[in-house]
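Run: sequence + pyridoxal-5'-phosphate -> complex structure.
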Amino acid sequence: MNMQGKNTPMPRDDIRSRLGLRPVINVSGTMTSLGASIVVPEAVEAVSAILTEFVELGDLHRQASKTIADLTGAEAGFITASCSAAISLAVAAAMTGPDLAAIERLPDTTGLKDEVVILSGHMVGYGAPVEQAIRLTGAKVVPVGQTTHAHAYQLRGAIGEKTAAAVYVVSHHVVDYGQIPLKVFAAVAHERGVPVIVDAASEYDLTGFLADGADLVLYSGHKFLGGPTSGIVAGPKERVRDVYLQNRGIGRGMKVGKEGIVGALAALQAWKTRDHDGIRAREKKALDCWVEALEKRPGIKAEIVPDPTNNPLDRLKVSVDPAEARITAWDIADRLAAGDPPVIVRDHEVEHGHFYLDPCNLHPDEEFTVAVRLEEELDRARKSNTIIATPFEERLLAREASILKWPD
Ligand SMILES: *Cc1c(COP(=O)(O)O)cnc(C)c1O
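>> structure
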């Protein structure tokens, strides 16, 4: 194995060393808990340029709107604090429209349509429950169908006099079978005049959801786009205006500053000219490097798998047979995370005996360090007298207990 990158000391000016933080290598994807994504240079430069200047914020939002419109094909756009904030504000807008008094009254929804339908199989968590982002506005959540199957007639039956909006989530988190496709979902909602809000936080596709019937589509600015923490709303002018107006109400606590707007705007503009093929080629190189490192290792199967929601991104699925590898998949994940440098893998399905390596947030040469750390842990396990197997239940409860340990 090429040892390039192995144990490279953290540069002295790395802000993490000044703050006493571990220099994490992120092969888990775009995770808020790890700092989301590598912000693109264009956004870094724009953020730093605006921080010391005054602007007329309404005008800055107008410019951002034009850029969002340009990239999504929608009439208008709006930048807020996060995609989660965008869900709340889009729902609020569906209830209040442009009624400024109603905007100030939320979360009191007296006199407004205040029910929001969502498929049961879409009621996911992304660090917080999606349905809480809806309820924050004062809206009531009306789940549709069962977790594992939903029919158009169930959606039709759930929509009534008080329905303000229909929320549709596109994500690898949602149940991936038995759900109503967006086109059908939107058609049924539109039959009853109900607007469709699509949470597409992590999706690279900036135009397809509007084409499939979304009235508003929401993205994270800090995921694939590589912007600073922000959320992006796109849709028809009046609907987006109604979302923007929520800044005079519940949106105040979710506001984005000039740096967030300018950074998201720069990331969107950079997206247009980004070398997408070059990035894919680099990601492929990382995947190949890991495949090579894991080849012929007893009890380890490594396969390159496509993204479950068709984003142009492949990951390496590493399946572990503990009898042969002499370690469980979650013990490998935990040892990599505890190591030097810490390597954080994608372990949301680890109870099935596999984890993923996601190459989309790597700095140059970090793939070699990941390969070396994998080899080290697998070699160590093979030499161990006993199989390294923390009971999964124990790991689960320990992780849960650690939530309350902060700030110690
Ligand atoms: C990440 C994510 C969110 C939240 O996005 P933020 O911008 O981090 O608030 C919402 N929905 C889905 C499906 C996500 O993946």
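>> summary
The chain has 16 helices and twelve strands. Residues 1-6 have pLDDT under 50 and may be disordered.
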